[in-house]
Amino acid sequence: MDLAPEGIPNPMTAAEQREYYELLTLFADTLDQVERNYVKEVSRRELMEAAIQGLLSKLDEHSDYIPPEQLDSFRTGVESEFGGIGIRVGVIDGRLTVITPLLGTPAYRAGIQAGDQIVKIGDAAAEGMALEDAIQRMKGRIGTELELTVRHKANGPTETLKLQRELVRMETVLGVRRQADDAWDFQLLADPRIAYLRISSFSRQTHEDLQVALETLTRGPTPLRGLVLDLRFNPGGLLSSAIQVADLFLERGTIVSTVGRNIAPRTWAAREEGTFGGFPMVVLVNHYSASASEIVAACLQDHQRAVVIGERTWGKGSVQNIIELEGGQSALKLTTAGYQRPSGKNIHRFEGATEADDWGVRPDEGFLLPLEPADMRRLLSVQQTQEILAPKPPSDAVAPPDADRDRALQEDTQLQKALEYLKAKT
What is the pLDDT of residues 332-361, one digit of tens each? Predict the structure, then answer.
């Protein structure tokens, strides 16, 4: 008896099996004809990868093939961690420039600052080097050494540093401003009893970092009377991380469930242990809040643990399974199931869905606050600027107040609505 990969009897009839092998033969014959007779030579790998992409194009937009040369960057995006020295770089005025070091990394400890220019990576001159090539050269196996030549502050002194690569974890739990030690300050100056936490994506570390921040806030000298959880522009991440984050705020009840064609239905429930409660919450979302961020927002909304303010979310409620190919050299990202909210409603926005259909997460009644495109761009710019570790002023200098940041907070109508709601509750 033929068995499917998971040990389930193959459901194909004899006629279906004959058709299956005939189609495989058709594909092999087509590949052979192209290889032997096409006007230009095309590598077999290019043809096979194009065939895989063609196959997946008949599925949904989230199913994809990750070729070997893109696998590292894909894993970095999902895991929010990689082996490297811990800097974000970009090309400014034709020169490879440090956007920001990442807190606690080898680059941070070595004194590399935002605005520094990278002159050489190892023996290779950085000028004219493609950005992706530069990033790949700086990444590497944990424990290996990287020699980096840096020109400080554009026209400042040049220094050659020897740095050891470490496991770099990108921050995903962020606050309002940096403190003197570069740690995040999560309290709003307008009312220190109200905390602000922004989650940029859901990585393996997000739950632990959020738990530490909440413990600090709830045990501090100023009692926590309200919390703003900002999930705007959050594209999602790991399902397990979203479940753990939602569980921090719920004592009991369903968090999310999944239903698929070839997998058993599964439901995740909250546990009372480790729950942070006793204060009202607002979850901020916008059109670019997707996937894992929608799971958290929908869960807290359905259990009436938080009020959702902002815009209707993206509507990405499908589960992608990462299947390794070629012994882990490439991968297949395949949609295998869909999410359901605790209420049982659908999250995913299927093709052809209308505004009246159930998908995504809608703000609570009276809290729909769409932003104009210019306001959206300004908000995104503020968020990106907040993540930059600014160079330290001289020890005897008084740091000027960040007027741009404070003005941006005042102009953030969604955040101001959240504060208005929480102040009324407290």
Answer: 999 988 999 999 999 999 888 999 999 999
Nearest to 103 by CA among 152, 150, 168, 195: 168
All residues at 6 or more sequence positions from 260 whose CB lies less than 8 Å from its CB, including other chains: 319, 336, 337, 338
Q: Using alpha carbons, select from 122, 103, 123, 124 the residue that is nearest to residue 114.
A: 103
CATH 3.90.226.10-classified regions of the chain: 173-391+402-425
Active site (catalytic) residues: 291, 302, 316
Q: How much is the pTM?
A: 0.86
The answer to whether 232 touches 285, Cβ cutoff 8 Å, is yes
Q: In angstroms, what CA-CA distances link 54 with 13, 63, 351?
A: 26, 11, 19
CATH architecture, domain defined by 173-391+402-425: Alpha-Beta Complex (3.90)
Residue 416 pLDDT class (50, 70, 90 cuts): very high
Q: What is the pLDDT of residue 286?
A: 97
One-letter identity of residue 87: I
Q: Count of CB atoms within 10 A of residue 185's CB?
A: 15
CB 345 within 8 A of CB 358: yes
Question: SS3 for 402?
Answer: coil
- Give the max Cα distance, the chain: 84
Rg (CA), the chain: 25
